[in-house]
Amino acid sequence: MDKHEQLAVWLDNHHSAIGKVVDLDADTDRMLRLDFTDNNKELTITDLTDTERFSGWVSNKLTEHNCRYGIGGYFEHRTIYARSPLFDTANEPRRLHLGIDIWARAGTPVYAPLNGKVHSFRDNDNFGDYGPTIILEHDLDGLPLYTLYGHLSRESLNGLYEGKTVDKNELLGHFGNSDVNGHWPPHLHFQLMFDMEGNKGDYPGVCRYSEGDRYRLNIPDPDLLLRFPKASIV
Fold it and tell me: Per the domain annotation, does 141 fall within a domain?
C-alpha cells in the first residue's frame, strides 16, 4: 500500500478526526468550479496581469452563479501563470497547479482540518507568489502529512512559532487581499504533501508539466481531506 492509499484509508477510518478548512453550509452554500486552463476563453493576458480586473472577473462569476466559493485546480495545467515571471523558468515554464484553490472574499476564515503543529511559516512576498503562508505538520498514526495554506492575510502569521500546537477546527487565519497575498484575487491555495523535502515556509504550488509525475508521488489530492459535498459544487 503506497502513501496515497494509506492516507485514504486513514481518513476513511477517522471521520471524527477531520475538521473543516473553510466554513461551508451544505444546505445553502454553493461552490463554482473555475477553470483556468486554455479552455477558459473569457480571460485575456491583459485581464490576468491586471489584478483588479482579474479579481473583478472572479467576483462577478461567483455572484452570477450565486456561489459563496469558487474551487478547482488540482493538477490543472493553467495558462494564468503567464501573468508573472516567477513561473517562467528556463527551458520550460511552470504551469501545472499542485493544490486546490478556494476563491472567496478577503477576510474569509481558514481553519486547521486536523490536529497538528506549525511546521513553518513565511511571507512569500513576490508578485504571483503565495504571500503569507502557513504549513502545518500532522502525524496520522505514523504517516506524516503536511498541509499548506497560501495567500493569507499578514495578520494570520501573528503569534506563530514552529512547533506551536494547532487543534482541529482551530482558526488558522484569513484570506488576504490582493495587496498582500501575492497580488491575486482573494483565495486560499490548499495543498497536501507527504514530505517537505527540506523546505520551510514554502513548497512549490506550481511545477513544470514534465515534473508532474514526480510531484504527484508526494502531493495527494486535497479533496481526500476537504470532502466538499459534490451536490454543493456547480
Answer: yes
Please work out, in degrees rounded to the nearest 5, the angle formed at the alpha carbon of residue 137 by the alpha carbons of 209 and 217. Answer: 30
In the 3-class helix/strand/coil scheme, how is the chain assigned residue by residue?
CCHHHHHHHHHHHCHHHCCCCCCCCCCCCCEEECCCCCCCCCCCHHHHHCHHHHHHHHHHHHHHCCCCEEEECCCEECCHHHHCHHHCCCCCCEEEECCEEEECCCCCEEECCCCEEEEEEEEECCCCCCEEEEEEEEEECCEEEEEEEECECHHHHCCCCCCCEECCCCEEEEECCCCCCCCCCCEEEEEEECCCCCCCCCCCCEEEHHHHHHHHHHCCCCHHHHCCCHHHEC
Determine, yes or no, domain membership for 98: yes
17 domain-assigned: yes
Q: What is the pLDDT of residues 139-179, one digit of tens each?
A: 999 999 999 999 999 999 999 999 999 999 999 999 999 99
pLDDT of 188-219, one tens digit each?
999 999 999 999 999 999 988 889 999 999 99
Looking at the structure of the chain, the number of domains it has is: 1
CATH at residue 174? 2.70.70.10
Please name the residue that has the C-alpha cell 514554502.
202
pTM for the structure as a whole: 0.93
Residue 232 falls inside a structural domain = no
